[in-house]
Amino acid sequence: MEFELEEAPGMYAVIDTETTGLLPGHRHRVIEIAVVLLDAHGQVEREWVTLLNPQRDLGPQHIHGILTADVLAAPEFADVARELGELLAGRMVVGHNVEFDLGFLRAEFARLGFAVPLITERSMCTMALAGYLYPGAKRTLGACCSAAGISIEGWHSALADTRATAQLFSHYLRAFPSPPPWQWAYDEVRRLRWPSIPGGEFTPTVRPVHAGGRHGWMSRLVDQLPRVPEPPQADSYLALLDMILADREINQEGADQLVHVATDLGLSRSQVDELHRVYVADLADALWTEGFEVSADERNDLDRVAVMLGYRASDVDDALLRASNGRYVVPARPGARAFPRGSTMVFTGDMVERREVWWGRAVAAGFLPQEAVLPDTTFLVAADVDSLSVKARAARELGVPIVAVEDFVRMLPPHLLPSSDERKAG
Questions:
Q1: Is 211 a residue whose pLDDT tops 70?
Q2: Does position 89 have pLDDT exceeding 90, yes or no?
Q3: What's phi and psi for 173, nearest 5 deg?
Q4: Helices 252-265 & 390-398 angle (0-180, nearest 10)
Q5: 260 and 160 in contact (C-beta within 8 Å)?
Q6: Buried b (16+ CB within 10 A) or exposed e, 79-107
Q7: Other CB atoms within 10 Å distance of the CB of residue 388
Q8: What is the spatial distance between Cα 150 and Cα 9, in angstroms, rounded to a whole number?
Q9: Pick from 15, 13, 190, 32: which is nearest to 99 by CA?
Q10: pTM metric for this prediction
Q11: Rounded to an integer, what distance in angstroms lies between the CA atom of residue 48 and that of residue 16?
Q12: Contact, 381 vs 403, CB < 8 A?
């Protein structure tokens, strides 16, 4: 059985979700959803929000800030599906990077056996609108709201983000005539049939406040990052990267999710590598512009991000030198262009010469070789910096810089340098 609305009190449904991961098709679930209903003029008609019990672990809690105790008594998606469908039916959905939220909602309804008409091409994205209205506009919700004089209160809270997105959309709506140029799309949405979804009574669960406000220098930098116009999927991918890295954390699971996201978006390996290169360079630009100096902690965090994205600390040196027109002073410390004597290090991969020879060179140069990558390891020397060895995976997990053999050779004093043939990795 399906239903079709005859009349609707308003025109838009602004949404935001918090999720256990990035991939709706890989067991990741919605754990909080908020909806703000707007009329045709962008005025708020109603707000609706609830936490959801996903019946699984909550994923990156450092991002969404939701604790297991918060969702134990929360309804499951099946409990709220009917009311949520009634809120969305007949309205044009609005979101910031709306494709992400729609993908998760479609997947949640599909788990219940319902195909719902939540069509990305018939929705409105404030991230895209910002770029259309204001060339040069930044990508994140925080940056777009800041430019419009809108404050966001709450730490990755679905309701806080939805309220901010609703205000942002209302602000953008005033830049268009009435009716807006997408009226035809809304008229199509009004005619779309929704399935009749069963449901009963439930009590929405609102999250308690564990932390207030977006904070941290990395979060500020992320809000300054510019858009990347090509390929067309770039900003959708980078918006998720922004979200993960706002707190300087990306573990192996998050890295694997990004690979799946890139695949789902149709991005090639070379395109992703270029996006990561640009991302590191843009972070360096934003960091230098912010204060014209880089603290040791900031540099360590920037190195960690670069390593997470497959780049080396020396790439960060180069990016900061470009950003500063050569004024940045490369520190002689772990994670920068050079590593001081006494630094701990590990070798991985097959090299032309025996491992014992390289070990001896490292000791003679004042380094402290180790057999395994540990949390206090300073750097890893790899025959292939893209190595999938146990040591390389551990280095990426721990944020330990991975150095190519050629770069390690440059650290050695002249009398320890191997011949050109010996430097080649097998």
A1: no
A2: yes
A3: -60, -35
A4: 100
A5: no
A6: bbbbbbbebbbbbbbbbbbbbbbbbbbbb
A7: 8
A8: 26
A9: 15
A10: 0.73
A11: 11
A12: yes
Tell me, what's the pLDDT at 249?
A: 60
User: Measured at the alpha carbon of residue 395, what is the angle toward residues 391 and 398, in degrees to the nearest 5?
Assistant: 135
User: Distance between CA 183 and CA 175 in Å, rounded?
Assistant: 15
278's enclosing H/E stretch is: helix 269-291
HEC secondary structure over 153-192: CCCCCHHHHHHHHHHHHHHHHCCCCCCCCCHHHHHHHHHC
* Strand arrangement, sheet containing 368-370: 368-370, 344-348, 379-382, 402-404
Radius of gyration of the chain (CA): 25
Residue 127: CB atoms within 10 Å: 25
User: Is the separation of the CB atoms in 71 and 55 below 8 Å?
Assistant: no
170, 171, 172, 173: CA torsion to nearest 10: 40
Q: Are 202 and 79 in contact (CB under 8 A)?
A: yes
User: What are the structure tokens assigned to 107, written together?
Assistant: 């997947």
CB atoms inside a 10 Å sphere around CB 27: 12
User: What backbone torsions phi and psi does residue 89 show, to the nearest 5 degrees?
Assistant: -60, 130
**Phi and psi (nearest 5°) for 109?**
-65, -40
- Of 124, 138, 258, 111, the residue nearest 197 (C-alpha): 111
Answer yes or no: are the C-beta atoms of 169 and 126 closer than 8 Å. Answer: yes
SS3 content of the chain, % helix, strand, coil (to 5): 45, 15, 45
If you search the block for the tokens 């209160």, which residue do you land on? 153
In tens, the pLDDT along 292-312 reads 788 877 887 887 788 778 777
One-letter amino acid of 390: V
Structure tokens at 248: 């300087």
Residues 6+ apart with CB under 8 A from 215: 155
Is residue 39 a contact partner of residue 169, using CB atoms and an 8 Å limit? Answer: no
d(CA 184, CA 14): 19
Among 169, 163, 161, smallest CA distance to 142 is for 161
Rounded to 5 degrees, φ, ψ at 14 are -90, 130
Q: How many CB atoms lie within 10 A of CB 171?
A: 20
Q: Which one, of 256, 385, 230, 412, lies nearest residue 315 by Cα?
A: 385
